[in-house]
Queue: 2 jobs
Job 1
Amino acid sequence: MSDEHFDAVIVGSGFGGSVMAYRLANAGLRVCLLERGKAYPPFSFPRAPFKLRSNFWDPSDGLYGMYNFWSFKGSGALVSAGLGGGSLIYANIIIRKDEKWFVKEDPSKDGYEYWPVTRADLDPHYDRIAQMMNIQKYPLQFKPYDATPKTLAMIDAARKMKAENPNLDLNWKPLNLAVSFRTKHVGHPDHPDDVNNPALVGEPIREDRPNYHGKTRYTCVLCGECDLGCNTGSKNTLDYTYISAAQYQDPPAEIRPLCEVKSIAPGDGGRGYIVTYVKHDPDRWNGQKADTSNETLFPRHRITCDRLVIAAGTYGSPYLLFKNWSSFPLLSQTLGSLFCVNADLLSFILKSREEKNGKLVPRVLDPNFGPVITGAIRLGDTLDGLGDQGRGFYVEDGGNPYLMSWASELTDFLGILRRAFLFGKRFLSYRIGLNRDADLDDEIANLIGDCKVSKSSLPVLTMGRDRPTGNLSFDGQYLNCDWSRKPSQDYYDRVRHVVKGIANALNAEYLDNPSYSYLHQVLTAHPLGGCPMGVTKDDGVTDSYGEVFDYPGLYVVDGSVLPGPVGPNPSMTIAAVSDRAADHIIQQAGRS
Ligand SMILES: Cc1cc2nc3c(=O)[nH]c(=O)nc-3n(C[C@H](O)[C@H](O)[C@H](O)COP(=O)(O)OP(=O)(O)OC[C@H]3O[C@@H](n4cnc5c(N)ncnc54)[C@H](O)[C@@H]3O)c2cc1C
């Protein structure tokens, strides 16, 4: 076992971990960032089916990829393993939690929510995140962005619904995206354009200094593949922003991908903390089953630190704490509590139609064009003070990669059979001499068909405020989650009603995702809670700075510390909470 010492060790490189690594390194602390997954430079994200099948994370089955999918009874979630955490697969939306949604309810109520921070506490941190992540709105004022069909359709739907229900608190708004549409950093999201910095498709990005990967990035090519990993490097993911910056500090942060933390414990004599981890070697183990608990095959490395920051995500952090609970006997009994799914719902708008020349024809929504999300229809909340609306939410246009559009075309099985028959007939007629025209272009185009399903349908992503009634638990080997949608059913009924209204406004059909309708399972991209921050140890694992009660110098800063749903997409709030915790650590270390 080697023994190294750092001022701070950070476990996990998602929004919580990367922000913390940069901030502490920037304050002059010696920092080590341990991340279980690989680093992904531009053009390293797989696309071919045979590569995608091994793009999952399960080292004991020889899988070292980026996706980590969890399926519990009432909920299922996708998270990520890789340098940059969820930013590698996320849809780039970086927005603040609504001011009035920082709920402070009575903790004696079942399913209560209590945020020990306010919007005013987080605003200065949100400002810093916005600057570092180079956020900007989708440049709808320019070509070809102005012709993005799915965005125009959502704007249209919101306008129609508002006209029909003037009292409904419903508005479409563009969202802030951490995507480079311009070749230079925008400076300020409200003033992104000057003549020397227009939005351009697929141009090399000019960076002030080489990024972590040392590779050229390109502006967004509008391919809808954000959730597969951005091969052009247009997404301002954490490896290009915070992690790259952390490397330029004095001393530079030590960044260690493929290092999975296995155990944590207080240091000798109660001073600091001890971390053990394994170094993964995909070149050796890819595709092979292996017992990763075998310390001969997977030797443990040990480091010590004055401060330990756990940022392993909503499942990873509670898992580490549960597994090592015997080393932390004073840990709050609330560990695992206040889990929620940020009220996510994935649904589909299918086969939209519009009237042209007196005829109803498919309306092109083209989910392949543009980044995965461009804007949202926001539905008001009782908390906004506009009457008894119910719980609020955001409905966002979804995009999908070409791969999915081709797959969705296969659902029209009868159409394929019919077209194949017609093509075969035409082909044969030439072969047996009944026809002398060898040019098959038109026939091949007809064989592909009119692509009605893929061109006029759209995934729709909704998120808002469910009740944080879920619990994560650990049976000594496996993590379990008992969240159920029942306490939030009123909310889900409202969401489905509104999204059906959007489908209606677009002359389309509405479809629930099959998991929701057949398995009673809500799929989420935003699991939150499990190590909630609270006011005391009776209602939280950590205080509002993410410091674990009764363990000075031990922090949790990621989605697991949020004590309830964010409402909108949560990354910016996770990052802001981490930035605020970093201020606290820096001050305690006497470096401010
Ligand atoms: C498809 C998709 C789209 C999304 N789109 C958006 C969006 O547009 N906007 C938004 O705000 N949010 C979005 N999200 C959610 C967002 O990605 C997460 O909320 C966010 O990444 C959570 O940040 P985190 O710091 O809590 O954890 P994560 O980002 O999950 O980071 C945790 C990191 O810890 C590492 N780790 C875990 N265990 C260990 C260990 N033992 N040792 C070392 N490392 C470990 C993991 O590999 C991971 O890299 C999306 C998510 C998905 C799946």
Job 2
Amino acid sequence: MKQAVILAGGKGTRLQERLNGLPKPLVDIAGKPLLEHQILLLKRFGYSEVLLLVNHRAEYIENYCASNNNWGIGIHCINEGVARGTAGAIFSAFDLLHEEFLVVYGDTMLEVDLQRFEEFHHSYPNADATLFVHPNDHPHDSDLVEINSTSLITAFHPYPHKEGSYFQNLVNAALYCLKRDALKPWKDTPGLLDFGKDIFPAMLGQWQILRAYNSPEYIKDCGTPKRLDKVTSDYVSGRIERSGLYRKQKAVFIDRDGVINKEVSHLNSPQQFELLPNVGKAIKRLTDSEFRTVVVTNQPVVARGECSPEALQEIHNKMESLLGQEGAYVDRIYYCPHHPDKGFEGEVTELKIQCDCRKPNIGMVKQASTELNIDTAESWIVGDTSVDMLTGERAGLHSILVETGYAGLDGRYGVVPNFIVPDLNAAAAFILDDFPKLIALCEKIGKQVNTRDFVFIGGLSRSGKSNFAGCLRHSLNHNGKRAVILQIDRWLHNEVDRGDGVEGRYNTKELADILSVLTKRKEAIVLELPIYDKLNRRVSISGSRLQIEPDDIVIVEGTIALLFADNLGVQNSHKWFVEIDENQRSERVLKEYRLRGFSDEEAQSILITRQQDELPFIMKSAEKASIRVALHIGEVTAPQITFQQQNSL
Ligand SMILES: [Zn+2]
């Protein structure tokens, strides 16, 4: 029989205006007292005995429970008589405690997968207590918990913190699994006793084992009218219920160097760690949304012996502190300390191994997905290298390449990102604003696309057509219509082998052959995909294969896509054209060439050539399109999408 204790003695002085004379645990949240929400959660997870430690206006609570027949479980109200603090209240009821019990504070609204929490507590057999902890959006003025790599609590850092000190962003959220016997040394101590201030630090002082369960699930106190309103609106919107880890979660995996902080080769000290512009704002947007944020970073500096795990922890503490100053936090940080190549001076030999966690392996994504119950198909990875993009492809995440750090020009793997945006802030805007809007549009126009159809998506370079194609594929897949994308840019010729004009840049013959085979296919076809290496301006082998089933929809995306549509002679082909404001497009083209190492003049001259040979030619092909999608990109990247219909659908 599982036992829980609810600390229900609070007066709720700050909530008086909302209580109408009721004690704090009975404050209304969307038509039900807070206490009832808590009891129903406990009941759901098999707690059949609940001790209610009551004090202020105890009779109201007793009567409320009685009028609900104790919800069919064993509920015992114990009146402490005097206020003794959180721990003191429990000592008053010491003889009624089970060997192990759960503690819930009477002023918190929570939705926690209690079974996961208990399993975590039991996974370390000697744990005397497990505290539910989470990052918050104001760590600089919070009491913080420090843990080691096995989640053992090693220190408490009460507020105020010393100027210039960096800590992990972990806060005691007021939910505990406790062993009764571990509390024995203090059970007869008189007076007010608080778990956070008195008992946990004392337990640590006696070498007891305290563990921290770090979870992004909902747990918030409702002790002021403002907080109560926030909790109520979160409850009504369903956000609280969706946070329970028994439900699948959506996540954004974020690479560290070159995405969050400035790329510094072999970064090994907090002094070198500097956030990129707008990163705090970006992560705060994700934090405030319902996406879980997970940092996944390769740190071979540890294996090389250039950065100790302790120094790496300090670097991450600085990252969390800097983010915290902007109200942002990440739910988890995973790093791979390994490196596969042995035989260097100063290396840590045992870390020089082939591991599963070093990206593009997906060990870190898998671990996070288990720990946070992540639905990878609804999740994202944001990175600056082909390593991150391949990790995303292997793990089944949507991948977003940012043009900070290496900007995808690391040349390691031949992989095409699903989406490309300027930086992390634009990535957050894309995930939260643009993607849902584009999906809504694709849901609408995707209705006319049936299995086995071809969709040709043309547009000038950097007009947003590949991001659009990615959204279309997602939307079609979501509706049970499997779709694949052929990016025509994969078939660019080597710089030296190019013919005239736009078409001369591509291996159009091979592409036409492939499309012709695809139109006639009766069984699955596996394509070995080439890739054009933009940095070295030559064709290479990507190693990626694409399996195309007979019923798959084939999305052909690229500047010259619409030229192929006519030659193909297939019945069900759709011709769509994507465009953006020409000034914005020019800016994007210039930026891309600058990133690829061209000078301003060279970039300008390429742009002018492109405007002469590509623009009129491609815009003429737009006349063939049945749908023109105008993506108006706003201040950051919030586009207003208009839908143009040229001919009848
Ligand atoms: Zn590893």
